[in-house]
Amino acid sequence: MKLRRLLFEAGNAALRPLGLYLGRLEGDFQTSVPLNAMYELIRTSLADVWGRWYDQMSADDRIGHAPLITKGDFTRRIIDFLEEYRAFTGKNIRSGGLMLNNTISLFAAAIYFDAPTIIDSGTYTGNSAWALSRACPEAAIHSFDITHVALRHRAPGVSYHLGDWSGILRNPVSGPAFGFFDDHVDQVRRIEESVVRNVRYLVFDD
What we know:
Elements: H1 3-15, H2 37-59, H3 71-87, H4 100-113, E1 117-121, H5 127-135, E2 140-145, E3 158-162, H6 165-168, E4 177-181, H7 187-196, E5 199-204
Parallel strand pairs: 1-2, 1-4, 2-3, 4-5
């Protein structure tokens, strides 16, 4: 028996008198979050954290963006999105793509800037494109990747492209546009490409 297994069993033996048990977390968020006190704490925490983020972003003149959405509607939409995410069958439940925290962060940034055009560089399983489509259903969303082998979910209204975004979208877009880059490419290069294409609000992952 491996050492890790022995430690796991020893830990459970010690916790058993207390009515506790060590389980294995197979993946982020797994299939759902239990509807209990912990879940309510998650909801409350999300409203608090993103409410403060909204205040800080709105007060920072360097951002150069006045959100059209109110703080109350902003936090409400994030809480509602948590419910959607629980039911979404295409979410990433293992490492290698956006997980719960980053998906919510992307959704929040997208609804805050509410850009008419959105670039998603790094389609992968389709999780990010889906989140962006839920955030801005009226936006023109373009998702790019060099392969669609891992693509499991195609969100309605999203245009999917095979290839690097800079080689496909060469001209400035109507904007200012929003760009999400999760493609393991030099970020300075992506910023330079975005500037000439009028993609102003950028979010990076990896």
